[in-house]
Design a protein that fits this description.
single chain; mainly alpha; Ammonium transporter fold; globular
Amino acid sequence: MDTGDTAWVLTSSALVLLMTPGLALFYGGMVRGKNVLAMLMKNFVAMGIVTVTWVMVGYSLAFGPSIGDAGILGDLSYFGLDGVSSDSTEIHGGTVPDLLVMVFQMMFAIITPALIAGAVAERMKFSAWVIFIAVWSIVCYAPMAHWVWAGGFVGGDLGAVDFAGGLVVHINAGVAALALVLALGPRLGWRREAIRPHALPLTVLGAGILWFGWFGFNAGSALAANGLAANAFVTTQIAAGVAAATWAIMEAVRHGKPTTLGFASGAVAGLVAITPAAGFVGPIGAIVIGIAAGVVCYLALQVKFALNFDDSLDVVAVHLVGGIIGALLVGVFADASINGVDGLLYGEPAQLARQAASIGIAIGYSFVVSYALAMVLKTTIGLRVSEAEERGGLDLALHDEQSYAFVE
């Protein structure tokens, strides 16, 4: 074990956990004032629920030895973290204790279902949400993590790569968000009434915290304080900055003025898109990925209106589309001199096909499982609050609290 590497991954783990409160603020500013606490709670509760599911079974299903030869799922060798030690690197290799890799991966498992919350804002029951993320973290997130990062068939036999979670985190969560939106239906008054963000400064603050934490997310995924971490750090910053500027330019060209919400959304889109590629591409690749995220994710906002589904805070446009962009462009710009994998531009066109196949697998599995889980909840305990509760606001209806109290 190496103390420098261990210190960096400890720091990165804390940075990734900080992203969940940052996400809560990012989403919280975009909802109406009567629903702020409900949105914050949907994010924060993941920090409790998924910690439990990950410790008990999620980590073992994701990173335990594969059951059989197909690479579909880990076994329960590490149930309750049995055998996961702070003084051994036997499970993951490298120079960082297995127990630390476990907690670093826990932070990813926490924020992934939290990402879905933005799509179901202002109308989903809290009880249904808690059950959904608890089950989803076990039956959807853990298998996907095993396929890609723990010797499963996507990262193994197929040969697709995902440095820090384009497939496992962003596409997975984006598709689940779409499935839940289709099961829930639109908010009352959607496309008939103005539904505006109540506090964009909170959203910008949340975006800043996300940007800061993302360096742990991406550079920490090197699991060492080395040149690969430095490359991931630099490409993360480049893609985020380029995408934010590109989104603002798109707004200025189409509507005459750039917006703070647009710049913040563009930054997050760039961060999403570079996530699978950060440890495989260089600065030029990061620039192209940032431009692509800024343009394509911005244009993808129109899809929900064309297809008439109410993705409240644009999780599909930013996380699903951004994740697809990044996962696909790894197959174009990956450079073996950085991390052993070449893409199309470096003489390996097959890598692009591998990436495309992995995207299809992630989308198909996540949608089927997420939609099935949503429909089971809908037909049993119900997914949605009552019309009266939705009109009055979820803060009072679900939590008996108010975000802002005005006293004369």
